[in-house]
Write a structure and sequence with these properties.
Order of helices and strands: EEHHHEEE
Radius of gyration: 17 Å
Helix content: 25-40%
Largest sheet: 5 strands, mixed
Number of helices: 3
């Protein structure tokens, strides 16, 4: 089933980033299952990225404008050949949810429990809102 997700960080000027497509298995029953599937898919995409270096490291005006609309301008090159561990990434994502590091909304409805049953339709939009703030010394 094709769904979409986006990530937002509290306090950022840009309220919403681009919608990213993801494929969920049909047997997803709860938020925990959905997070596992999304994180695993993103780790696979990360590990499949190209390590190639361009001979001419520049962006065309069209590429620059297209990336500026998305909110991040870069060469999209990987400078490191390390691979991510999907199992560790899933464990970290689930623990971060339980610790309140981020909230999840599905069609503007907050989902608070990893085990609560979900009704997800094709085209559903998940929004992940990171709630961490900068910390420092107060004077």
């Amino acid at each position: 089933m094709q769904i979409y997700f986006r990530v937002k960080t509290a306090g950022k000027r840009r309220p919403v980033l681009e919608l990213i497509g993801a494929s969920l298995p049909d047997d997803v029953q709860c938020l925990g299952d959905a997070i596992r599937a999304i994180v695993t898919d993103q780790v696979q995409r990360f590990n499949a990225r190209s390590i190639e270096q361009s001979i001419f490291p520049y962006l065309s005006p069209g590429q620059l404008e297209e990336q500026a609309e998305i909110g991040k301008v870069g060469f999209q090159a990987a400078y490191d050949d390390r691979k991510a561990n999907a199992a560790a990434a899933v464990e970290t994502a689930l623990q971060a949810f339980e610790d309140g590091i981020y909230k999840v909304l599905i069609h503007d409805t907050v989902v608070e429990d990893l085990q609560a049953p979900l009704t997800i339709a094709p085209g559903s939009v998940f929004t992940f809102i990171r709630l961490t703030l900068l910390s420092g010394m107060m004077r």
